[in-house]
Every structure is written in structure tokens, then in C-alpha cells.
Amino acid sequence: MLITMLAAGTRGDTQPYIALGLALKAAGYTVRIAASETFQSFVEGFGLEFYPLQGDVSKVSTDSHLKKAMQADNPLKIVMSFKVLREYAFSLQKGFYDACQGADAIVYHPGAAIGYFIAQALNIPSILATPFPMTPTKDYPALIFYDSVRLGKTFNLLTHILFEQTMWLVSSLPIQQFWKQEFGSVPPNFTNPFRAIREKNALTIVSCSNYVFPEPKDWPDRVHNTGYWFVDEEHNWTPSDELQDFLQSGTPPVYVGFGSLGDPDRATQTTELVIDALNRSGQRGVLATGWSGMAKLDRIPENIFILDSAPHAWLFPRMSAVVHHGGAGTTAAGLRAGVPSILIPHANDQFAWGRRVYELGVGAKPIPRQKLTAAKLSEAIMQALTPEVKLAAKALGARIQSEHGSETAAKAIAHYLEQQ
């Protein structure tokens, strides 16, 4: 039985679907992942089928319009920024459609909502697989509102409905344009799929730990917080001798990296700020340049090591703390590693993860990127390295490691497909 999985976004967005794909493969399914062509070797390296979506997703960070949209830092800006992403989304729809041909079921990211309508057209089951909680609940606000004012349970529910409708407004026009271009009309029953799947009691699985956001009691029966979907990249990765030597030459360092959302225009300034903060706090550091968010300076202090990137599953447990932008995947990796986190939110849901990490007592109070200074970062590092935070982070890491989220999600999918 062939399951096509529709992923959307960066490497961090794609990686959980590889983990889920491997669990489904172990359960006896054939799995095909559709994702940016940038990740072909990454996906195929795990023995999964790959369908390339045209376009290099890393170029999103250099497109001025898309870059501005991805730097939205409050709920209103985030809602408005989604409109800018529509044109980029249109180019993906045909790839998503073609990737599903011959499939027996479709598993789709909320950013690939066309999966719901493709499954409907092919008369096969579809499953929403989301990397963050998005099913409406009264327990907490939607992630883009999570770091805003709290106005009670009814308000919480309304924020989820607004976020869900916004996601649909972003997706609906590209889907509509593609379907009319291919078939001359919109799909039958063309309505908000996120609401429709609840009305049909279809399966939704969420890659999130119940120790981070407990599964709400007001969720429908077929919505499951399964635990994070982790795939360990280090199976074919070897650290350089220089990195090994640095790690062994002193106390565990602090990791600092801003992934795909670092600003190349101020990479040197950011690097100098981070080094200053590490020196003030008396810490060694491993700095990851990512997509040019930080720079390789001509002169690097002996207490600093700069690399392009390294698998988080290998690197993070060897750190004393991790400083990052607060992407969902990087946050999950930091929590799993059992070390304290310091989040520097740049945009979108990163503010939610920053607040949640602080609420859980496993990291320092987040510092928005616009307010980041060496003094503030130094203070946050020292706060994160207190015994109470270190113990709480270690305990949470052990709980997350016990969840086996991808296997739980695969079992839920298998059970659901058997009933269809």
C-alpha cells in the first residue's frame, strides 16, 4: 500500500515527515515523500521514495517579499504575511497533485491542504499530519496568539478558529487556481478542509509532545497528540576532527544557531554580539552559520567554534545549553536533548515556543530578535544554566524520549486505514 506524504517548508519542516515515513515503512507500507527538490538526497538517504517539488526552498530567505513575510512578529502581521506566500504556494500545487498519483492514501502538512481534495478526487483516505497543535481548543490560544494577551477559554477557541480560517484563505486561492487550470472548475465540496475533517471524524495526528502541550480533553476522538516525530540524522554523519577536539578540550559549550531565519545582512554583527555574550557569561560556544545568519569571522577566539551545521540529535546533547530562533523542529530537538534552551524568536510561531519553554521552566525568558543585546543574551545564558533549570530540562528530555511519537502516529494511521 502506497502512502504519499506531502511536506511543506524547510528542512526542519520536512524532517518529521521522514521520521513518520520510516515508521510507516517499518509497519509494511511503501512511502513517498513530496518535498522541495533541495531535500532529495536527504530523503532518499533514508530509503524512502521521493517526489521533487520544483524550486529551492532556501531561496525563500533571499526573496525580499517572502523574507519580509517570514519575519512577521505579531498576530496581525502574521495573518497579513500569509497573503504574500500565496504566489509561492501556487507553484507547488501541481507537484503535490502529481506526487499523489497511484497512492492508496495521502498524509499532508497543513501547508499542503490540497492533499484533502486530491484524496477526495481519487477516492482514497487522507490524514492531516501537523507539526504543531492547530485543532481548536479552549485550553490555550492558537500558536500565533500564544504570546499575546490572555482573555479566557472562549477567546482561546476563537483564536484557533481565526488561525484555521487564515490557513484556509492562504491555501484556497492557489488550490482553486490550479484546479480550474487543470479541470476547468474548483474541486467538489470546496470548503475549509480543516473544519471538514472534524465534521467527517477523519484522522488528525500532531507531532508534539504531551509533556509540552498536553492533549486537550475537548479535542475530537480522532485527533491525537502522538509525541514528536524524530529522525536521527547522524546515521551517515561524522563530526570533523576539529569539532571533536574542540568538544573534548573543555567544558560543554553553548550552541548558538538561527537556522533558516538568520539575517545575512547582519551576520557579522550577530556573530560579534553572540561572542561578546558568551565571553561575558564565561562560556565556550559552538556557532552554526545556517543560511548565513552568522558569519565566519577572520579572527575566532579560542573558546568559539564555528561550523556550517551539524545534526541536532548528535550535537545538542553534547552542549550545556542551546540558543536558537525557536522553530518548532529545533525547539523539539533542544527539549529532547535534555539541556536548557534560550529562544530568540524572529517571527511567526517562534514567540509561542519561546514562551512555552520558559513556562515549562526548562529555559530562560525568550528575547525577541529585535531586542537582542550581548548583555541580555549573557544574562539569559546564566539564567538557563542554573541548577533548577538544568534539572527541569533533563527531566523533560527523558519524558520526551519515552514517547516514541512517530511509531505512535504510524499505528494510528494503520488503524484508521484498516477502518476505511
From TrEMBL:
Q: Where is the Erythromycin biosynthesis protein CIII-like C-terminal domain?
A: 294-416
What domain of life? Answer: Bacteria
Query: Where would I find the Glycosyltransferase family 28 N-terminal domain in this sequence?
Result: 3-139
- Signal sequence span is none
Supply one GO BP term. vancomycin biosynthetic process
GO MF term set: hexosyltransferase activity; UDP-glycosyltransferase activity
Pfam hit, one: EryCIII-like_C
Protein's name according to its UniProt entry: Glycosyltransferase
Q: Which organism encodes this protein?
A: Tumidithrix elongata BACA0141
